[in-house]
Structure formats: C-alpha cells, structure tokens
C-alpha cells in the first residue's frame, strides 16, 4: 500500500525559503512578489525566484504543508506519556495547529488559493498526506481494510477542525479544540456502539441470553 507520506521530501533550502516567505504572505499573498521578498531577506538573488516558483503558488503551499506534516510528526514522536490512540491523534492535530498558529492569515490565504479551479488535485494531495501523517504520528500502522475507514473518519475531523480554526478571528484555538474534542468523543461513542452491536449479532456478551433451553 502506497502512502502519501512516501512523497514527503526533506528539502532544507526550500524550507528556509518558505519560512522567510510566510511573513510576507498576509500582504502579498502566495505570489512571486512575496517569494522575491523572501529571497532578498535571505540575501539570495531575487532573480532566483523561478527556481522555487516552478509549481507556482500551489507548489509553495504544498511545500509548506509538507514541512508542517514532517515537523508535526517529529514533535509527536518526542512526546512521552501519551499512549492512547485517540489522545495521540488529538496531540498530533493540536501540534499541527500550533505550528500554523503564527501564520494564521497565510493559512487562510493558502486554503483560499487551493480552493481555486485547477488546484483540486494539489488540495486533495495535501489533505491525504496530512491525514496520513496524523495517523502515522499517532502510532497507527494498520494495513487492512480499516486503513481506509480510519482515514475517511479522520479526514472529516481534520477538515472540520481546520475550518473552525481558520474562522477564528483572534489567535485563540478554543473553538477549534472544542470542536475537535466533540468529534473525537463522537467517534469513540460510535466505536463502542459498533462493538456492542457486533457482539450482539455474534451472540457475545452484549447479546440477550435466553435460559429457556438448557
């Protein structure tokens, strides 16, 4: 099974340029003009912009998304004392939001840019990679049919949480985290209900017992 994580590329030079670019995005957007400013800040020739602009705005956004995924995974890997899968999923999502926190306006502009016609493939690729990264960071290594179910569920949780986070007017995450906790609790309750139903159908502990036959 090929994971979207297989396409993650660790490019220190590109990461450095993206870091310098982010402060300019709120004013200039994900544009070549912002990229030229970033190169100038790094004492690099602005005329080198085409070297980093080959994928256009979508390419820069995807590079930033990849950096966020890699950094989030590294941070969660270092976390100790959190072993429950759902808690580690929450930890991974919170870590990624925290990494985006200083650049909320750049994140808003990135979301708007990827929503434009012609960028659906890049948007889908970024989303799939992030969901995979969250599950991987949480410690899930499943390769059976549950792999698809888990990622479908987490896609809804991550997308909804991100949308709430992007809509928050100030640099607070309370609404997004409350939404996240509700969704995670809902999934846990669904899982318990599903387990009880499965046991009942199989005649397990949850099934009603008849003592008329002995």
TrEMBL record:
InterPro entries assigned to the protein according to its UniProt record, in alphabetical order: COQ9_C (IPR013718), Ubiq_biosynth_COQ9 (IPR012762)
Pathway listed: Cofactor biosynthesis; ubiquinone biosynthesis
Record's keyword terms, sorted: Lipid-binding, Transit peptide, Ubiquinone biosynthesis
Purpose: Membrane-associated protein that warps the membrane surface to access and bind aromatic isoprenes with high specificity, including ubiquinone (CoQ) isoprene intermediates and presents them directly to COQ7, therefore facilitating the COQ7-mediated hydroxylase step. Participates in the biosynthesis of coenzyme Q, also named ubiquinone, an essential lipid-soluble electron transporter for aerobic cellular respiration.
GO biological process: ubiquinone biosynthetic process
Keyword Cytoplasm annotated: no
The protein's name in its UniProt record: COQ9 C-terminal domain-containing protein
Sequence ranges assigned to domain COQ9 C-terminal in this UniProt record: 122-191
Pfam families in alphabetical order: COQ9
Entry GO MF terms: lipid binding
Gene3D superfamilies from the UniProt entry: Tetracycline Repressor, domain 2 (1.10.357.10)
UniProt record similarity statement: Belongs to the COQ9 family.
